[in-house]
Design brief:
This protein has 266 residues and is an alpha+beta fold. It folds into 2 domains: 3-117, no CATH class; 127-228, no CATH class. It is 41% helix and 12% strand. The strands form 2 sheets. It has a 5-stranded antiparallel beta sheet. It has a 3-stranded antiparallel beta sheet with strand order 1-2-3, with no helix packed on it. Helix 3 (69-80) packs across helix 5 (96-112) and helix 5 crosses helix 11 (247-259). It starts with a helix and ends in a 7-residue tail after the last helix. The model has no long low-confidence stretch (mean pLDDT 89).
Length: 266
């Protein structure tokens, strides 16, 4: 981690300044009308024209938690370095659930970021029908691996087509299908019963079959089971980690994603 970032860990003013430059690279203007603003004593700004008042993180992913600028930088760094959640909560001196919420926001922000953002319907991790989990296809481009939703493809049809399957925990990976190198989904007990398959009968992923899955599977195993609702967020995290390659670069991408304006439902 570069010296500029680490120096902000213990200095809230420096952390706010750094994130301010990331959020407002062209200077602070009104979020509503784009006109000039005046600074307020409490650290917020008020538009000179429409009188709209807003803070440093208003309208951005960073605003979805009460973390200070300093804690956001620390959290993003620890997440980039793949610290376990309990260690993150200990290092930040926050409750486990608070740390989990912060990490979830980072995953949402990454999943919403270009070049292959998820549809906003995936970001809220709302309940899905247990017999119809979302299916993703893995595509390879010059920019790396990309995980894209494959709509209207029931899981049972994959088994009927005879696609070879392996699994990482309850995450099932198929052989190539159409333009995809793999299809992948999160299996549930209800799905297995409906398809008359036992998860235990699906072979465990064979190490060395794919560089991408060699990278992803050990990381997914650390979570001790993933739900279909949250699987898209974990999958996009793995996509970003693989494609960026270097921890510092992943940290920069995660921080840039957090500083972007939020689109879609909360």
């Amino acid at each position: 981690m570069n010296a500029e970032i680490t120096s902000c860990w213990h200095d809230e003013g420096a952390a706010r300044e750094l994130l301010g430059h990331r959020c407002w690279p062209d200077g602070i203007v009104c979020l509503r009308c784009g006109n000039e603003v005046a600074g307020l004593a409490d650290g917020r700004w008020r538009c000179r024209s429409c009188r709209y008042t807003f803070g440093l993180f208003t309208g951005r992913w960073l605003a979805r938690s009460g973390f200070s600028a300093r804690k956001w930088l620390c959290l993003t760094d620890l997440f980039a370095r793949e610290y376990p959640l309990r260690k993150i909560s200990s290092r930040l001196n926050v409750a486990y659930n608070t740390a989990y919420k912060g990490v979830s926001i980072i995953r949402q922000a990454l999943s919403a970021a270009p070049p292959c953002p998820l549809d906003p319907s995936f970001l809220a991790a709302r309940p899905v029908e247990t017999t119809r989990p979302p299916v993703f296809g893995i595509q390879i481009s010059p920019g790396g691996y990309h995980c894209v939703p494959v709509p209207d493809l029931p899981v049972q049809s994959m088994w009927e087509m005879g696609l070879a399957c392996s699994r990482c925990g309850n995450v099932v990976i198929t052989s190539a299908f159409q333009q995809y190198t793999h299809l992948v989904f999160c299996a549930t007990p209800a799905l297995c019963r409906m398809c008359e398959h036992r998860l235990e009968d699906i072979p465990v992923y064979n190490w060395g079959s794919s560089p991408f899955w060699d990278f992803v599977c050990p990381r997914l195993a650390r979570f001790h089971g993933i739900t279909p609702e949250r699987f898209p967020l974990y999958l996009k995290e793995m996509e970003w980690r693989w494609n960026t390659g270097i921890v510092q670069r992943f940290f920069d991408r995660a921080l840039a994603a957090l500083c972007r304006r939020v689109k879609g439902p909360r």
